[in-house]
UniProtKB/TrEMBL annotation:
It is an enzyme of class 3 (hydrolase). Belongs to the glycosyl hydrolase 1 family. The lineage of its organism: Bacteria, Bacillati, Bacillota, Bacillota incertae sedis, Caldicellulosiruptorales. Keywords: Carbohydrate metabolism, Cellulose degradation, Glycosidase, Hydrolase, Polysaccharide degradation. The active site is at residue 361. It holds the Pfam family Glyco_hydro_1. SUPFAM superfamilies: (Trans)glycosidases. It catalyses: Hydrolysis of terminal, non-reducing beta-D-glucosyl residues with release of beta-D-glucose. InterPro entries: GH, GH_1_N_CS, Glyco_hydro_1, Glyco_hydro_1_AS, Glyco_hydro_1_beta-glucosidase. NCBIfam families: BGL. Its EC number is 3.2.1.21. This is beta-glucosidase.
């Protein structure tokens, strides 16, 4: 299993999950600062106040990345370090931190790949409606273009958003992520404002002839029908409802990003069930069509599949329920299903115009333990091997895959699950901030070196 020369092997993190220093050097409060400080939102009351203390230890971390052999490092910028209130006065100390991080990466031969927004919205913007307020498009644009213009000579790959699905639905419908809102109609406003913000930045970069590629990262989940999987006949209503549920997960984001429209079939269903106003649906379609611009690449985050079954008693948006097939599961309760990555990549290739793709996140949480100063995470090594094989197979079948970023470079705050789930190649002892290289670190180091 060998990969082409120049294939971009990387690892990924996000600002809130690793930086800490939540109120240092002029940084403003983000929605995740607010959310984690409110009792009952996060397991064990964990917060990102200190996290992995990457803000103070980034030089040590970059040297570990160099030792690992990373070709690229994908990280996000904390909007609140740049504009503490979301707009207005720029915080030079925040920029200074990212200046030093980017320079350190380049010095060590690691390409910086920047995610502009990985969920930590300034709280001051949330106070005026956040992503549900149309004005956010302009605030985001100002923030994004300040960074792109500042770093355009050093950073050639930009990701506008990480996982719009999670921002809109986990944050605004299920309420399990910041800002903790539970309103489907608000979530749909969020989807739309994210799309308009994304288009605006892509267009500006292209029109300014900036020498950089701009894409977006979507978390996509291949959907399988339980009855079909077991070899039974599938009824028309089951296929229809399970497909519609998959559109909410996938095509609601892939269609506007790659085709310039929302899935009409899904919109018709949402309007019929009063989850979306008919006039609103028309306006959304019209505006996406008018603002659409094709990105330079697509980032895909893949972790597992969803197996679903028609269930008319379901209280969800669709009469559908989740099934959990027998198999291997990670600590987060996600099935290990490498075939899903192949199926997903082939679906993108067959459904949409040709586009360069990066796997911007893939990885697994296991119950890692330090024994004699070492962490033997053989399950993670196997997980990665199997998923690399699926990616290679997709490339052999014509998928234009350019790179692969492991989630995550190091253990970190796993959002609502706090510090209970470890995804890293590097183990973090949160009581001492000691970094310990896991067996998967050495596996990946050798894999990158040999490109196979």
């Amino acid at each position: 299993m060998s990969f082409p020369k120049g294939f971009l092997w990387g690892a990924a993190t996000a600002s809130y999950q690793i930086e800490g220093a939540w109120n240092e050097d002029g940084k403003g409060e983000s929605i995740w600062d607010r959310f984690t400080h409110q009792k009952g939102n996060i397991l064990y009351g964990h917060t990102g106040d200190v996290a992995c203390d990457h803000y103070h230890r980034f030089e040590e971390d970059v040297l570990l990345m160099k030792e690992l052999g990373l070709k690229a490092y994908r990280f996000s910028i904390a909007w609140t370090r740049i504009f503490p209130e979301g707009f207005g006065a720029v915080n030079e100390k925040g920029l200074d931190f990212y200046d030093r991080l980017i320079n350190k990466l380049i010095e060590n031969g690691i390409e910086p790949v920047i995610t502009l927004y990985h969920w930590d919205l300034p709280q001051k913007l949330q106070d005026i409606g956040g992503w549900a307020n149309r004005e956010i498009v302009n605030y985001y644009f100002e923030y994004a273009m300040l960074l792109i213009n500042r770093y355009k000579d050093k950073v050639k790959k930009w990701i506008t958003f990480n996982e719009p699905y999670c921002i809109s639905f986990l944050g605004h419908f299920y309420g399990v992520h910041a800002p903790g809102i539970k309103d489907f109609k608000v979530a749909m406003d969020v989807v739309h404002n994210i799309m308009l913000s994304h288009f605006k930045v892509v267009r500006a970069v292209k029109q300014s002839n900036i020498d950089a590629d701009v894409g977006i990262t979507l978390n996509l989940t291949p959907i399988y029908l339980q009855t079909e999987r077991l070899g039974y006949e599938v009824s028309q209503i089951e296929r229809e409802m399970v497909n519609l549920s998959g559109m909410l997960d996938n095509q609601l984001f892939t269609d506007p990003v790659l085709k310039g429209s929302y899935p009409q079939e899904l919109f018709d269903y949402l309007v019929q069930k009063d989850f979306l106003e008919s006039r609103k649906a028309e306006i959304m379609q019209q505006e996406v069509k008018e603002n659409f611009i094709f990105p330079d690449f697509l980032g895909i985050n893949y972790y597992t599949r969803a197996v679903r079954l028609y269930d008319e008693n379901s209280s969800w948006i669709f009469p559908v329920r989740w099934e959990h097939p027998a198999g291997e599961y990670t600590e987060t309760g996600w099935e290990v299903f490498p075939q899903g990555l192949f199926d997903l990549l082939m679906w993108i290739k067959e459904t949409y115009p040709q586009i360069p793709i990066y796997i911007t996140e893939n990885g697994a949480a296991y119950n890692d333990k330090v024994e004699d100063g070492k962490v033997h995470d053989q399950k993670r090594v196997e997980y990665l091997k199997q998923h690399f094989e699926s990616a290679r197979k997709a490339m052999e079948n014509g998928v234009d895959l350019r790179g692969y970023f492991i989630w995550s470079f190091m253990d970190n705050l796993e959002w609502a699950m706090g510090y209970t789930k470890r995804f890293g190649l590097v183990y973090i002892d949160y009581s001492t901030q000691k970094r310990i290289k896991k067996d998967s670190f050495y596996f990946y180091q050798k894999f990158i070196k040999e490109n196979s």
